[in-house]
Amino acid sequence: MNKHGGYIGEEKDEVLDFSVNINPLGPSEKVVNNLKESLNDIHRYPEIDGAKSIKHIADQLKITENSIILGNGAIQLIYLFARAMNFKKILIIQPTFNEYERAFKLAGGDVEYHILYPKSNFIIDINKLKDKMYSTNPDCVVLCNPNNPTGVYFDKDFIEDLLKISKEMNSFLLLDESFVDFLEKKSAIDLIDEYDLFILRSLTKFYSIPGIRVGFGLGSEKVIKRLSKYQEPWSLNTLALKAIPDIINDHSFNKKTLEWLYEERQFMLYELKKIRYIKVFQTYTNFILCRLRKSSSYKLQDLLLKEKIYIRTCEDFNGLDNKYFRIAIKNREDNIKLLNALQTLDIN
Amino acid sequence: MNKHGGYIGEEKDEVLDFSVNINPLGPSEKVVNNLKESLNDIHRYPEIDGAKSIKHIADQLKITENSIILGNGAIQLIYLFARAMNFKKILIIQPTFNEYERAFKLAGGDVEYHILYPKSNFIIDINKLKDKMYSTNPDCVVLCNPNNPTGVYFDKDFIEDLLKISKEMNSFLLLDESFVDFLEKKSAIDLIDEYDLFILRSLTKFYSIPGIRVGFGLGSEKVIKRLSKYQEPWSLNTLALKAIPDIINDHSFNKKTLEWLYEERQFMLYELKKIRYIKVFQTYTNFILCRLRKSSSYKLQDLLLKEKIYIRTCEDFNGLDNKYFRIAIKNREDNIKLLNALQTLDIN
């Protein structure tokens, strides 16, 4: 297992954690209050497959319940997908979240990379990707969109082009949209019946409830049926199931979050770009990839931790090195603390 | 997925659910209060592998932390074990919990049964089992102890005899002790380093918290290392991790539970045996297997549900039929309601 998931040192209550990409506006009071109430129900088993909560998601997304599967966090669904689909050759678009590779390798798959580079701002050239697909002949391509840790978003037309190429090659697409809620209405959800596509969605990052573990996946009925066959019963706990109806319909929280992010992302990108020793990459979501021009991100991490600020170094992402780091966008007060610390650091 | 995990009808708050084997004394107020507090922490990721909670279990059981793995309920560990160990031939001692078979088959294993019979009160004849093992040559034997749904407990000497036979044959033992806390100090835990043995333990049944999903497994360092390699990160939620230290050291709750069970089990066995149309099997844990002499358990289930009482029919267990049913032992007031209903039913 890796070391990530936020700062876990003893003094974690005093450390500003920019290493995890969690919405700073939540969880909402309503969600927490309802979870408190649901503690009265923990002497019962949770619903075995979460059918009632699935219904709420289906209604909200206007799709059939048979296109949805719940996960003990989106991460359970990555491993479940790898296991159930049993692909032999997988092409992962890198740098990206490391767990795809681990999941497919554990399931016995042969993993290849299509690496994106900083000189092209980590954007995909569809022709190069197509060439790579023709030369590697993958059963499945994996894309995280918006991509963690680069923050790049590939638009719907691009996704559909990629799906068309995949269809020609009889290849599947695993599309991780764990951060898509931070953009407005940009999911590829309406393509699940037309293409061999499985979409991952997370509810914990946008709604600030990573502690209770809840995500879901979207695919054709055939795909969902196959995944369900392989899933452990009672995968979701009572609180996760209870939270779904509350959060999935909380339009005011959604609106407030997108307003916060629009404002704060502009502010952070503008201010970070003033700092000479950092190269800042464009982002479309709630975190920002940066690169130190000279020093290593370990050194920066150490110096910031003395100021009780924690960042994510990125040396473990394929295609990045020990000069990269990632920061979450937080609320203005916290963001200013980070900016002040960065501005006054003596790093060479 | 199966249909079990308790009564889930709309009027579930009014129905006495004897179908799930949950301790009626819990969850304790202390546990619920601490879980309420831990809701302040759900905006953070849970610890990725639950190392701090594992330390509490290790201290309590006086074993090394490297012998312990946590699970999103013991059920996650059944599937993880099947997947990670990748056994080809598995011998399951039946009738028993159905998920072992599903887990091993999904992992590509070939499953055989050693079926126990009511005429011998579902007790294992070690010589017959040995013959079966020699004729089937399993990589792994699966035993639930005390066994669900028969309530039979196989003592430590028996388990060690079985392990010796397994060792001769180079076979593994999966020993599910999910209900062992309902007996005092009877785990096979001190054998994990001497034999190829993996023990499953549940914390949700004894401590009445099935809603938050928490179990653990015990094995040699080598086995635990292998299972950890295959486990999804962040499998346990924040509340499950938080509950472990509270419950694992709650000696007064343990004592109270064992006192309740001793008293109530005697009472229930004595009273049930007075009912002519039921055959009652001896039990060593917190549930009782019964068999109707003439009628079907579906009919009994229907009739009882009219009295707002729900029981578990057992037609889906290998070796049982539609005359069997299982009831949990609850508190005196609820037990009397069940007994009264059974005594007045007109079932032929």
Automatic annotation (TrEMBL), chains A, B:
Which CDD domains does UniProt cross-reference here? AAT_like
Task: Indicate yes or no for the key word Lyase.
Answer: yes
Q: What GO MF terms are annotated?
A: pyridoxal phosphate binding; threonine-phosphate decarboxylase activity
Give the catalytic activity: O-phospho-L-threonine + H(+) = (R)-1-aminopropan-2-yl phosphate + CO2
Alphabetically list the UniProt keywords. Answer: Cobalamin biosynthesis, Lyase, Pyridoxal phosphate
Give the cofactors, semicolon-separated: pyridoxal 5'-phosphate
* GO biological process terms, semicolon-separated: cobalamin biosynthetic process
Q: Does the keyword Lyase apply?
A: yes
The organism's place on the tree of life at top rank: Bacteria
Reported EC number(s) for this entry are: 4.1.1.81
Q: Per its UniProt record, what Gene3D superfamilies does this chain match? A: Aspartate Aminotransferase, domain 1, Type I PLP-dependent aspartate aminotransferase-like (Major domain)
Q: Which residues form a coiled coil?
A: none
Q: Which PROSITE patterns match?
A: AA_TRANSFER_CLASS_1 (PS00105)
Pathway it acts in? Cofactor biosynthesis; adenosylcobalamin biosynthesis
Q: Which segments constitute the Aminotransferase class I/classII large domain? A: 14-341
Q: What does this protein do?
A: Decarboxylates L-threonine-O-3-phosphate to yield (R)-1-amino-2-propanol O-2-phosphate, the precursor for the linkage between the nucleotide loop and the corrin ring in cobalamin.
Can you say what this protein is called? threonine-phosphate decarboxylase
